[in-house]
Amino acid sequence: MLLPNYNEARKRSKEEVKKEYYHLEGTIKNIGKEKKYYIKTYGCQMNEHDSENIKAMLEELGFREADNYLNADLILLNTCSIRENAHNKAFGMLGRLKHLKEKNKSLIVGLCGCMAQEEKVIDDIMKKYKWINFVFGTHNIHRLPYILEDAINSKKQEIEVYSKEKNIVEGLPVKRASKYKAYVNIMYGCDKFCTYCIVPYTRGKQRSREKDEILKEIVELVKEGYQEVILLGQNVNAYGKDFDYHYNLENLLEDVSKTKIKRIRFMTSHPWDFTDGMIEVIKKYPNIMPSIHLPVQSGSSKILKLMGRRYSKEEYITLFNKIKTIPNVAVSTDIIVGFPNETEEDFTETLDLVNYCKFDNAYTFIFSPRIGTPAAKLEDKIPIETKEKRLNILNEVVNKYFLENNQKLVGKKVKVLVEKESEKPGMLCGYTDTNKLINFIGDKKLIGKILDVEVTEAKTWSLDGKTC
Ligand code: SAH
Ligand code: SF4
Ligand code: F3S
């Protein structure tokens, strides 16, 4: 048994990060024979991509994917810790699984992802959820086959969570959700320690993946017919800062661009590390999409300071204006309301910033205290009703700009990567260069292609169009 420890997780050692390759011992390759698995994924794209790796690992063990958790022999929850409601969703699902497990004793249930890195969660699992068969963390996904084998053989609860990151593991198999766009990790962890955020504890220190590994993966994707890559990291602008040679996101974007992949996106950008050089690279290469996710969190410099974000409102706006010089660029953001000590004036400053930036998209949240983070220790006097009111007001304002920005596209031609049939009958859907969802009538044969679509109608969260 290996349990997580926050004091360890918080440390940032100077130890060199090594690389190792995933290798599966032959003996356990059939533990999943004739069995089905189901993975429920919560949280960000990083977690979704981890699930793509986990699925492929389970399939190497002989498991096949179940279409519903009710038909599965193995159920795995890949969890997220970012806010209380992510926790609640996972615990709610565990409640349902407990009943299922009472009826079907041979059902195997596992938990992984960011919640597995939390001391309190593991404590609860050991005391109140003894029926969960196994737990592993974000740093030892590659150990899943062995942990699973132990759980099956020992019939005891197996918990193996590393508090700290170890090597970067290359060569994990992957079962991608899409045949046309692919997530590619470029870095792991985060060293920013924004005061409200749990990620630096659950994902460990910042480690960049070697450029050769990234490029090899993308060249392979191009050969397989992929049209789009999404370069992933909690703070991609800091890519390469941990290398002992000079190679950063600017260099990587140029090199990825030269692989001839049709579309490149990257996320998430922290304003702190966004350089002028990056803006130039984005302008220079047409396959780097003009769509930037640039979380602001708050429009009040006082609150930004308390959040440990390392920029003021003015600095954010300066950067925003520079980014806006990229032709046709769309900028999206994340905003937290109700951070401890946020006054009406601070909140008004956030609204002012939104009115200035007129974001193309924004994810808005109420501050959720996370155990172990500095912000959770701040006295929080704002009543929940006030926080909810602020969130509602903010949502109304951001939504107004989503619609306004979309309306500007009506009558124009946009390039779309057609992804699948839309939920709307008879229609297809895909995303524009600027990452806007568009539904349009078209033949299924168009799926997987990039084509021009004329925008016919604008809605708040999507566009309608017709092929040209
Ligand atoms: N690495 C990204 C963000 C990752 S988390 C960045 O720095 O921009 C995604 C978003 O969740 C954050 O941008 C923030 O808006 C929100 N978030 C993170 N921790 C939160 C908390 N404790 N309460 C509420 N929202 C939070
Ligand atoms: Fe969290 Fe800040 Fe790191 Fe983003 S940059 S993951 S908000 S600590
Ligand atoms: Fe959640 Fe972990 Fe991602 S906390 S947002 S799944 S890095």
β-strand amount: 15-25%
Spatial order of the strands in the main sheet? 3-2-4-5-6-7
Largest beta-sheet details: 6 strands, parallel
Query: Which compounds are bound in this model?
Result: S-adenosyl-L-homocysteine, iron/sulfur cluster, FE3-S4 cluster
- Terminus-to-terminus distance: 60 Å
What's the count of strands?
Answer: 21
How would you characterize this protein structure?
This protein has a 6-stranded parallel sheet with strand order 3-2-4-5-6-7, sandwiched between helices. Strand 20 and strand 21 (463-467) form a beta hairpin. With 468 residues, the protein is of the alpha/beta class. The longest helix has 24 residues, at 384-407. The radius of gyration is 23 Å and the shape is globular. The N and C termini lie far apart (60 Å). The chain has helices at residues 6-10, 45-60, 84-103, 119-128, 144-154, 199-202, 211-223, 249-257, 276-284, 301-307, 313-323, 344-357, 384-407, and strands spanning 19-21, 36-41, 64-65, 74-79, 108-113, 134-136, 158-160, 168-170, 181-185, 187-188, 207-208, 228-232, 263-267, 291-293, 330-337, 361-366, 413-421, 427-432, 437-441, 450-458, 463-467. Iron/sulfur cluster is lined by residues 190, 192-194, 197, 199-200, 234-235, 270.
SSE diagram, text form:
Blueprint: H1 6-10, E1 19-21, E2 36-41, H2 45-60, E3 64-65, E4 74-79, H3 84-103, E5 108-113, H4 119-128, E6 134-136, H5 144-154, E7 158-160, E8 168-170, E9 181-185, E10 187-188, H6 199-202, E11 207-208, H7 211-223, E12 228-232, H8 249-257, E13 263-267, H9 276-284, E14 291-293, H10 301-307, H11 313-323, E15 330-337, H12 344-357, E16 361-366, H13 384-407, E17 413-421, E18 427-432, E19 437-441, E20 450-458, E21 463-467
Parallel strand pairs: 1-8, 2-3, 2-4, 4-5, 5-6, 6-7, 9-12, 12-13, 14-15, 15-16, 19-21
Antiparallel strand pairs: 10-11, 17-18, 17-20, 18-19, 20-21
Helix pairs in contact: 8-9, 12-13
Bound molecules: S-adenosyl-L-homocysteine, iron/sulfur cluster and FE3-S4 cluster (F3S).
S-adenosyl-L-homocysteine (SAH) binds next to strand 15.
